Amino acid sequence: MANITSDLVKQLREKTGAGMMDCKKALAAAEGDIEKAVDQLRKTGAAKAAKKAHRSAKEGVAKPVIQEQSAVMVEVLCETDFAAKNENFEEYVSNLANRVLTNYEGEQDLTGELPEQEKDNVAELVSQIGENIQPRRAIRWEGSGVFGSYMHMGGKISALVEIEGEEATEELAKNICMHIAAFSPSYISPDDIPESKLESEREVAKAQVSDKPAHIIDNIVEGKLNKWFTEVCLTKQPWLRDDKTCLEEIAPGVKVKRFLRWAVGEEIE
Question: 9, 22, 129, 140: which could join 18 in a potential S-S bond, CB 3.0 to 4.6 Å?
Answer without folding.
Answer: 22
